[in-house]
Write a structure and sequence with these properties.
The chain has one domain: Gamma-glutamyltranspeptidase, small (S) subunit (Glutamine Phosphoribosylpyrophosphate, subunit 1, domain 1, 4-Layer Sandwich), CATH 3.60.20. 22% of the residues lie in helices and 19% in strands. It has six helices and nine strands, in the order H-H-H-E-E-E-E-H-H-E-E-H-E-E-E.
């Protein structure tokens, strides 16, 4: 969806930049809420959902001047609490690993495998207790979850390994910062973030968005941007800390040199040896 806009003419942090991101997120989450489920039980039309055609259809629904209040999912075929850790490592031979682990709510399931030193997660909570729902509970079925160990390739080669703890939409923002806004690895994570609340979710807690939700802006966005978003119909609020925590490694394809980044919102560090 975002590929269709000329990023060279859209400054980072502007009302237009923020508006386009939020509207794309609303559309993507609407499809996710409709189709995200264990594929063995409820297969999703993945090639279509990731196609340029579907992106163009979504983009056509997006007004450059007005925030959407309601979004419908693709009709071609009819969370987030707890602590998470993210780790990415890279070796001299070019191997990069992106790993994320979350026990989810509280102490997870409360069960620890003997001798292994970690607790099993309880993401089964994210099923929907509705028999005919694609993400409804069933034996042997995997539930919806938000764990995203991310990886970027460029021209078929490893480019960046990264993750964001505590956020379901911040991954796209960091990719935009790196690819579209020309930020370096550390700048991409430190830049102020956008949090949109109120999209449809596959957990059944909010099946349809009818009021456009609300946009939480982290400190760093100008009042000009805030007012511009309000004029487009966005409900802008400020929140304490839902913006995630990012860590990343980037590989220079020519020299093989690695760059590491760890942002200041959470504890962590970038180290080489």
């Amino acid at each position: 969806m975002l590929e269709g806009y000329d990023s060279s003419t859209i400054p980072f942090g502007s009302a237009e930049h923020t508006h386009l991101f939020v509207e794309a997120k609303k559309l993507a989450f609407a499809d996710g809420a409709r189709f995200y489920a264990a594929p063995a039980f409820s297969p999703a039309p993945v090639p279509r959902l990731f196609s340029k055609e579907r992106a163009a259809q979504c983009r056509a629904l997006n007004s450059l001047d007005k925030a959407m209040k309601e979004v419908q999912p693709d009709t071609s075929k009819q969370l987030e609490e707890g602590d998470t850790i993210y780790l990415t490592v890279a070796g001299a031979d070019g191997m990069m690993v992106s790993l994320i682990q979350s026990s989810y709510r509280g102490m997870g399931s409360g069960m620890a495998p003997t001798g292994l030193g970690f607790i099993l997660q309880d993401r089964g909570e994210m099923f929907v207790l509705q028999k005919d729902h694609p993400n409804g509970y069933a034996p042997g079925k995997r539930p919806f979850q938000t764990i995203i160990p991310a990886f970027i390739t460029k021209d078929g080669k490893p480019f960046a390994s990264f993750g964001v703890m505590g956020g379901a939409m911040q991954h796209a923002q960091n990719v935009m910062n790196l690819v579209d806004c020309g930020m370096n690895l550390q700048e991409a994570g430190d830049a102020p973030r956008i949090q949109h609340e109120g999209s449809a979710e596959p957990t059944g807690q909010a099946t349809v968005m009818r009021d456009g939700g609300e946009v939480n802006l982290e400190t760093g966005f100008s009042w000009e941007t805030v007012r511009g978003l309000m004029r487009k119909g966005h409900r802008v609020t400020f929140a304490d800390g839902p913006y995630g925590g990012y860590q990343a490694i980037m590989r220079d394809p020519e020299s093989g040199v690695y760059y590491g980044a760890s942002e200041s919102r959470k504890d962590g560090q970038a180290a080489g040896y």
